[in-house]
């Protein structure tokens, strides 16, 4: 459990999980100050809270995924790609996104990058699509992934992310629990819907036909 001395000393991302026991801390405002500072640190000074936080007496806080959110946040994508040294991204999306004109907006945002677009993601992701995209990624010599769409697109992107990071074309090669190591392929998820939360989790629903 973190004490008030620990809270004061932590200035940057320290762990996937932080546990604060309020019985060690009399001044609850120090907990609020810590979360404000820590949220800013893990988000690259993007997240700021304009209002007072209302923290419960017991809670768990996990932030293993960097999140950029808000008006015009898509304009930060070129900077993020450059920071990750990505010049040739594979964009994964679906026909609905294309038909709605949203892909045009994304393509304009990444003008100057050598992009490859796959827009045939099915309504429910499948092993066949994930493995096909993994081969396309290598054949087209891509160096990063952008999943742009709803839950199925994001789940597909995460499957491809695992495959290309582990140098396989078959997602079933890593079947089983506690077998996946740390993945390093640059991967950016851009959700176009709310509700699934797939952009911040490690879970992915993919059909094995």
Structure, described:
This protein has 209 residues and is of the alpha/beta class. The protein is built from seven helices and six strands. The protein has helices at residues 4-9, 29-42, 77-83, 95-99, 102-109, 127-139, 151-165; strands spanning 17-18, 61-62, 89-92, 116-118, 144-149, 187-191. The strands form two sheets. The protein has a four-stranded parallel sheet, covered by helices on one side. A two-stranded antiparallel ribbon has the order 1-2. Helix 7 links the parallel strand 5 (144-149) and strand 6. Helix 6 crosses helix 7. 24% of the residues are buried.
Record keyword descriptors for this entry.
alpha/beta, four-stranded parallel β-sheet, single chain, two-stranded antiparallel ribbon, 209 residues
**Rg over alpha carbons:** 19 Å
SS strand fraction: 5-15%
- Extended strand count: 6
Number of helices: 7
* Order of strands, widest sheet: 4-3-5-6
Global morphology: globular
Please give the share of residues in helix: 25-40%
Largest sheet: 4 strands, parallel
- Give me the strand/helix succession: HEHEHEHHEHEHE
Ends apart, CA distance between termini? 46 Å
Average pLDDT figure: 85
Q: Extract low-pLDDT stretches.
A: none
> Which structural category fits the helices and strands?
alpha/beta
